[in-house]
Predict the 3D structure of the following.
Amino acid sequence: MITYTIRRLLLAIPTLLVISLVIFLLLELSPGDPMSQVPLTVPDSVKALMREQLGLNGPWYERYFKWLYQFAVVEPMVFFDWAFGTNITDGWFRMVSWKSRGPVFDEILQRLPQTLWVVGMAYVVGVLIALPIGIISAYRQYSVFDQTGTFVSMIGFSVPPFFSGVLMIIFFTVQMPRESFFWFPSFYDTTLVVDSWASFQAQIRQMVLPVMVLALQTTAQISRYMRSAMLDNLNQDYVRTARAKGLSEWAVVMVHVLRNSLIPVVTVIALGLPAIFGGAIITERVFKVNGIGDQLIGAIQANDIPTVMSLTFIFAILIVVFNLVADILYGLLDPRIRYD
Amino acid sequence: MFNKENPMKLVNALLGATAACALAPMAFAEGHEGERGRDGNVSIIYWQAPSILTPFLSGGTKDTEAASLTLEPLARYDEAGTLTPWLVEEIPTVENGGVTEDLTQITWKIAPGILWSDGTPLTSADVKFTAEYCMHPDGGCAQLTKFSGVTSVETPDEKTVVVTFDKPTPFPYGPFVGAESPILQAAQFANCLGADAPTCTEQNFNPIGTGPFKVVEFKPNDVITYEANENFRHEGKPAFASITFKGGGDATSAGRAVMETGEFDYGWNLQLAPDVIATMEAAGKGKAVAGFGPLLERIMVNQTNADPALGPDERSVIRPHPIFKDIEVIEAMSMAIDRPLLVEVGYGQAGKVGCNWIPAPPAVVSTTFDCSTPDIEGAKAKLEAAGWVDSNGDGVREKDGVEMRILYQSSTNAVRQDFQALIKDWWEQIGFAVDLRNVDSSVFFGGDPSSPDTFQKFYADVEMYANTFNGTDPQSYLGNMLCDKAPSPASQWQGENMSRFCSEEYDALYAKLTETADAAERAEISKKLNDLAVAGGAMIPLVHRGRLSAHAHSLGGVKLNVWDSELWNVADWYRIKN
């Protein structure tokens, strides 16, 4: 198992290098210009100087290697300095956003907590709701509960968050009276510091709407997987055997069937984890949550290449890593699968 | 004994004075004055989030205005567009001796007692440093045009700044005037000159200023927290103790947050359909306010041949345009457009019929043209008279074998696409065949010389966008129509003369403007230049666009300013208590 993991990790390095090059070239070839948001009152000659200042005049391979060096060497060393209090990177040029002129990684770190809180919470909530729904739906196939569950899942699948999000805002923020308990803010307040019971409540309140929108989607997906995995197992011979041995229905379903059904579902959940770090571009935009997804879309609009590159590449790393994690989990959960 | 009454008079006078003193705060309490920070927090939403608080490194309106709460210029424009002393005693003019007779030198006198928010005094050295910062050759300063022509900035004493220009400059209020050109603190930015400018993250995110507020925390592209500057020069100002400046979302959600849900007190630049604004106002939490600067939505008319068959060095470079060489064609196109309908469809209270390239300020607006009534029949007759007839019966007029087939491009934007559809219909009624095209605005306005889709390249016959100028003096804006400002391969497609308009008369008159100091005479020349460009077919003006912002009913003191930062008088904002 360990050799397998090491082999996979080593193989990931060339894969990631190719991915980074592809991302860079795609951005390079796509139209757009970091000066497009500068007002027209700034003349072209001044914009040309600003572009030069950003280092846009060099050949593409020079810019690519500069980015790679900053991503792979400078930023990890800055982290090392920060963690151990050393000063190795003093005077080094950090990777700087073209939009804010501040270090890209500082901004990512500033935004990651919001994404983890909101999107992560939505994922947890979604999974917690989805598992029981999937189990009951499968056990009582074609019952009213199953039909309702299917209906809700279909809504979750088919209604995009830019619609459900705005719908929630109109219902819970605009129509709902401000004094009502069910009034929720549509703007995520980043400046809120949770240090008391009241501020904790405020934090929960401002997370309600985005978490609801996102959890609906997660629930829809996972509950469908859970249901079909349960159905596959419920018809197996070993279930009949278990029942014939006189086990209670609870033991049959929750111990024998559920454990076997969870194997593919755990994989699906693990593969969905990078999406948490990726943030939820649309939902974060709709609710003004300053997370990673919001940062990515803002950077794309402003053609802030260093930020776009770094974020997409981090997602690539996470996807590669979580694929590996899913494979390893599979091996741990299912004794029939062995990699060595 | 000799004057017994006098002490009594004195006592009375003193009593009166005391009473007046005692009464004064009561009078203030009824109005809106009192001690600094009495009104708590005010929240502002800009749907474009500020990225940096140094206007010299960004140039984006959102960044400039967020910075204007902290950083201030020596003088700025008020809501009427009048130049107002801000950190100085008076506006230097030739009359008061602040500007030399030969118009090459301006002397600013910094008002006494102005402190930075860290408690140190503002001196002329800071002003001089600001000029060095922006004029540094490696700096990439976005506001470099503000300093064009400046040869030196001298500081004879602590409070005096002398700016010298390389030639007579009739309008010397470029450097250090307006929200785009504020004063930086020399001590803070000393190590941030030139190539080092972007590395000064701490300074760029948290500039020390003289303004009513100071930055507490800056989260790039998200939210800024300010608190009242305890060293601010005006007693009892600002009324608010802190500001939450949130950025992000879109114009709709910003409008909703101010006017419908009441989550924010002030929302900036709400480019929304008129009926959407009306619905939001009906919710009763806030209202929209409009102001009109020189922003004009226009159709630029290509004076060069944009035929795709031409090579890269000739397309949109060689003259003339096969159809637009007849000025009657452009006149007919303008006549066919129903501008009042465009205003109603696209902008509502934030738009007016636009007939002039320079639609504001009032002093320089020409009255030559009236374009508010469309005349389809008149346009047809004009084309007939000019020899453009539909001889082969395909619905498209032609002359000398050239058919009136044109490509009409613009940036991707809901209102612009509505305009394109309407205008296409009107033009086709008078005998044009119009193809429409829209390009993503990050490409269209991006200026990438390798892209064929930029508005500078203008690979189309007509293109629509909006443009404006800062401040109230149109000189540099009028300079955009000079022959040598036309983008071409030789200039790497840089330049502001999109329509490639070229007229010797225009260039000569512009040269005269740059040498004229008298305000009335300058206004006359500006009007003539406007007329030459519009009558000469460089563009078809469409809509004079205003700025629409919204504020809560409980927020008082807002004076929408389109000539400077919208937040220019934030020190005077207050909470209206019921």
Notes: Residues 1-30 of chain B have pLDDT under 50 and may be disordered.
